[in-house]
Amino acid sequence: MNESTGRETLGFQTEVKQLLQLMIHSLYSNKEIFLRELVSNASDAADKLRFEALAEPGLLGDDPDFRVRVEYDQKAGTITVADNGIGMSRDELVENLGTIARSGTAEFLQQMTGDEKNDARLIGQFGVGFYSAFIVAEKVVVESRRAGLPAEQGVRWESEGQGEFTIETIERDERGTRVTLYLKSGEKEFLDGLRLETLIRKYSDHIAFPVELDDVGDDEKKPETVNSATALWTRSRSEISDDEYREFYKHLSHDFSDPLCWSHNRVEGKRQYTSLIYIPGNAPFDLWNRDAPRGLKLYVQRVFIMDDADQFLPLYLRFVKGVVDSSDLPLNVSRELLQKNADIDAMRSALTRRVLDMLSKLAKNEPDNYATFWAAFGEVLKEGIVEDPGNREKLLKLMRFATTRSEGDKRDQSLEDYLGRAAATQDKIYYLLAENYATAVASPHLEKLREQGTEVLLLYDRIDAWVVDHWEEFEGKKFADVTREQLDVSEGGESITQQALNDEHKPLLKKMRAKLKDRVEAVNVSRRLVDSAACVVTGEQDLSPQLRRMLEASGQALPESKPILEINVGHPLVSRLAAESDDRRFADLSNIVLDHALLAEGAQLDDPAQYVRRMNQYLLDIEQG
Ligand code: ADP
């Protein structure tokens, strides 16, 4: 390290190195976005300083008017994006531009395949940011000074994007950050005033601060403001084009692709605020990380207050991006204050409704886009059934399922579709829980229902086991699990009691029960089977096997519970069992029938070796006649 300047060369974190390479490769056909990303960062830096200056006005010094300046220098072959925002200290610079703090990044980067389209989409989910500079630059120099620090504590960062960067302390008169791109020889096309102006208008018009363009080679020409420099959400809806809304979304979310829809509203009355909320088109890679930052960007009277204000929407809407700008919250509002505040609770309810209404509209008017939404976020939205009873009916309308009538594992049927097809006499909504689609669609439990034309919802998302515990009813119809003991499949017809059915086969049931007593609660004659010999069902009060597995996986100790075995008395294997006089063979076959019923519903056998032994013995017995 150099004594006087502290100059040192440091390596990028591995993830940064990978990201850099992938980004340069996969975003090459969108290379112009570097400008949007850098201007976006500059604007965020101004927002942050304006916020800090609320408490400490001295930070602004004699330079109170924020602006972003884009300079280009044809002779030097450089483009510079300079701001007078918050700036960075030496430590911050090393941290921010040398590492990626989001957890799960390494795993995420491993999904990259080298296929340009796929990788561009993935990187889009990640957000591109500062590093996009290296798509067009062979060298990037960042000079910065944190607001409030003296001139001697400026700092200079330099890198060729190849794995390391150097950092040194410099004297810097101004606060804020200058990012200078030394363009690669093939990228000099960007050194053109008109081109840059067009790009700024296209991508950064909505930036709330003036973005000035300056040709440093031309002393005659003064820097010129080229954007409209008003916060987008403060303008009236009719003045804003769809493209402007989309660009603003990208600035806000760091998402690379277009949002599916948005909703922009001004609320007047007791509480006054403006909100602009978006539904993204694809899931961020850390959607399932409960600690990942989420929430809206909060402004108070157009002053940026904080990112990720998570009090304005419930957790199950964590995919929503947007801005809320309040006219009546105090400027010094803190996260603590947001947490216990009746006004915020009211805003949260209103915003939640707004999101759900926006989704209903999307579902109705743009089913294809809704399908995209559902594929990305459906599982998250389902959490709302559990978390938000007040909106349950609305949420249920937004759910989409695969059913015994849908095509393949497409989840595109709504409950309204389902009820529209159901017989007038059907008073329940039938569903089946399973580990995956293949298990669901082949489940023995569906046989009779299928035969009589009763449609069944097939549920195989992880969260479903939890959802069905809470969803109760829809449009006056109760939900019914087709794997429960007391399922009545005699829709409209006569129903005979289980007892009466069992009575006809008493000796067989009794004998089986005796052989299987350690493994099953009871053995019953089934009404729901057609082709299969047997299935297992769950007692009315017991946990579903799916919920049980989920709870056990999370480390909960649960009291043991045994399933009920149902047998199809019309099945040849069961007839054979009834006719079996050899006691050992009867026991083996009874166990095999049970094991098969368990396997068919995707369960794991407690003792697979035992099963194999019995099965082998049974096959040999057949061979010997
Ligand atoms: P993101 O903006 O998505 O956080 P970036 O890679 O673009 O990711 O930037 C990383 C961090 O570097 C930012 O979060 C910010 O703290 C800091 N940063 C980048 N540009 C600037 C700037 N012009 N002024 C101050 N800080 C900046």
What is the topological layout?
Layout: E1 8-11, H1 14-26, H2 33-55, E2 68-73, E3 78-83, H3 90-96, H4 105-110, H5 116-126, E4 137-145, E5 154-159, E6 164-170, E7 176-183, H6 193-204, E8 211-215, E9 224-225, H7 242-253, E10 261-267, E11 273-279, E12 296-300, E13 303-309, E14 321-326, H8 335-339, H9 342-365, H10 367-387, H11 392-398, E15 402-403, H12 415-421, E16 428-433, H13 437-441, H14 447-451, E17 457-459, H15 464-467, E18 473-474, E19 477-481, H16 498-503, H17 506-515, E20 522-525, E21 534-537, H18 545-553, E22 564-567, H19 572-579, H20 583-600, H21 608-623
Parallel strand pairs: 2-8, 12-14, 16-17, 16-19, 20-22
Antiparallel strand pairs: 1-6, 2-3, 3-7, 4-5, 4-7, 5-6, 8-9, 10-11, 11-14, 12-13, 15-17, 18-19, 21-22
Helix pairs in contact: 1-5, 2-6, 9-10, 9-11, 20-21
Could you characterize what this model shows?
- It is built from 21 helices and 22 strands.
- The chain is elongated.
- It is α+β, with helices and mostly antiparallel strands and 625 residues long.
- The chain has four domains: 8-228, Heat Shock Protein 90 (2-Layer Sandwich), CATH 3.30.565.10; 234-365, Ribosomal Protein S5, domain 2 (2-Layer Sandwich), CATH 3.30.230; 400-481, Rossmann fold, CATH 3.40.50; 498-623, Heat shock protein 90, C-terminal domain (Four Helix Bundle (Hemerythrin (Met), subunit A), Up-down Bundle), CATH 1.20.120.790.
- The longest helix has 24 residues, at 342-365.
- A nine-stranded mixed sheet has the order 1-6-5-4-7-3-2-8-9. It has a five-stranded mixed sheet with strand order 10-11-14-12-13, with helices on both faces. Strands 15-17-16-19-18 form a five-stranded mixed sheet.
